[in-house]
Amino acid sequence: MLKKEAKRARPSHRPILCASLFFCLLLSNSLFSQETVPDIKVTLSARNRSINNLLDQLTLQTGYYFTYNSALISGKSRISLDVEDLPLNEVLKQMIGLDFSYRVVDRNIVIFKRNTQAPTPLSGEIERPMLHGRVVDARSGKGLPFASITLHGSSLGSISNQTGHFSFKLPASLPDPMLMVSFMGYETMLIPVAYPLGEAMLIRLKKKAIPIQEVIIRYTDPAHILEEALLRLPQNYLNEASSMTAFYRESVRRNDHCMVYSEAVLDVAKGAYNETRPDRVRIHKGRKITDYSQADTVVIKLRSGIYTSLNLDIIKNLPDFLEEGLLDRYDLEFTDLMTYGDKLVYVIHFKQKEQISDLLFQGKLYIDQARLAIVAADFEFNPNLLHRHPEFFLVSRSAHLHIRPVFARYHVDYRLAGSRYHISQVRAQLEMKVRRRRQWIGARYGIAIEMAITDVKPGEKRRIEAGERVRANTVLADQFFDFDPGFWGIYNVIEPEASLSESIKSIQQLLQGSRE
Fold first, then answer.
1. Cβ atoms within 10 A of the Cβ of 14, count?
2. Cα distances (Å, whole numbers) of residue 483 to 4, 128, 354
3. What distance in Å separates the CA atoms of residue 141 and residue 202, rounded to the nearest whole number?
């Protein structure tokens, strides 16, 4: 029950939410898949109609959506067709020809040509080919940040960066790989990969409209929806340990200048959601670059970024807006109904009560309408009160500095593995203004942490010895790493944004010049 007990709001919730910022991704492919077209009879009569129009008619008759590569099939091509009670497979042959194969994934039929050419490895040492692409809004062309890109039929995946760009190293053992690309509020797209790989792939996602017959709100009381969601935590989330591989990166900026950039591949021992045992992690590989100039009189280092990132799983480590007595601290409001992948989700907005003066959160919770599982959350510290509490984010500082936090924002979302949800993405950003006392002009410092779990094996227990574990006081930027362009081998990583990539190149040139 969400009891309305008279409790004083706690100013220091959980340490994981006060340390800084970070981000995480977990992937799963639990959708049903087969290689044959469903045995459905179709009737069509059309004169001089486009392929796109005919496929739309097939969707209305069969309930299946069709995906194809526009480089192989011209959707604007016009044909005439007159069939009655003909199997769907035969109708497709008459429409597009005999030289195509089909893959059925859930309610989607993917039309593709099987690859006859083997993929070209990235290098002699890296046997996997690398695909580059960008995920954008189909109408505006604007990049979609942190879109989920998974390899269907495997546990591998990645995410797009803040401008929608991504790279993906494909296992050479899969002759006809297929990507699944998804983003909150958009239609999921299934994309067959053709070899040889050509130019960067442009993936245009369409916003998903909710049919009017589906807009039926069974629960109008947001407190009741959230109460039911919390009661169902034990049955909705993974109840076994998992072994994960993660890509992690963090950066510190001063205005537009990148001061620190660190990244690592991590081995993660993830505990079950019904256990109290903490998650454990070790650094498998890592690298860093730093560029502190003489003008940088203030040096900021991020401590415990990796350790903290694992603890921002808000289902395993409940924040105060999900704990008992939350109605004493927060006002709830039902604000929207939207799509999340192929599911409808309730959107519940929460904010701290006006009479509470302690620093709390505000944000949105996204709850699966059918299962009443929390599938995502966007939240931040109350920006109207944040400036009063710089100590929440600082381990130590000089008495000569005046620090004002600007914002601290977080995002978490979850994905199904079989019948249960697990952590999928976590990200966060912290920005603060720093100036010396008795000075009017200072600088903006931004800290960004992202972590993507690129492989996961549910049920596999990974042992990480005490001496290998990342500790709460670990500063990744202080570890000894080298920056090597071919360092990551077969591992998938998050592509740097254009501005960050340019900063890295500038730092590399400076480092190279200092060695010569």
1. 16
2. 54, 21, 49
3. 10
Domain boundaries, the chain: 33-112, 130-212, 216-481
- Summarised one tens digit per residue, pLDDT across range 111-151 is 888 888 878 777 767 778 888 999 999 999 999 998 888 88
First to last CA, the chain: 67
Judge if the upstream peptide bond of residue 196 is cis by omega within 30 degrees of 0: yes
Q: Which two tokens stand for residue 245?
A: 């591989």
Q: Do 169 and 151 meet the contact criterion of CB atoms below 8 Å apart?
A: no
What is the DSSP track for 221-247?
A: -HHHHHHHHHHTHHHHB--S-EEEEEE
Are the C-beta atoms of 435 and 441 separated by less than 8 Å?
yes
Class at the top of the CATH hierarchy for domain 33-112: alpha beta
| Alpha helices (runs of H) in 350-444, residue ranges in sequence order | none
Neighbours of 34 (CB within 10 A): 10
Is 69 exposed, middle or buried, given 0-12, 13-18 or 19+ CB atoms closer than 10 A? middle
CA distance linking residue 407 with residue 387, whole number of Å: 9
Query: What pLDDT digit, counting tens, does each position of 71-104 carry?
Result: 778 888 898 989 899 999 898 888 888 788 888 8
- Maximum Cα–Cα distance for the chain, whole Å? 84
The fold of 130-212 is: Immunoglobulin-like (2.60.40)
Element (H, E) at 90: helix 88-96
- Residue 474 phi/psi, 5° resolution? -70, 130
Confirm if 120 and 104 have CB atoms less than 8 A apart. Answer: no
Measured CA to CA, the distance from residue 450 to residue 425 in angstroms comes to: 9
Residue with tokens 């080298």: 482
Q: How far is CA 245 from the centre of its chain?
A: 15
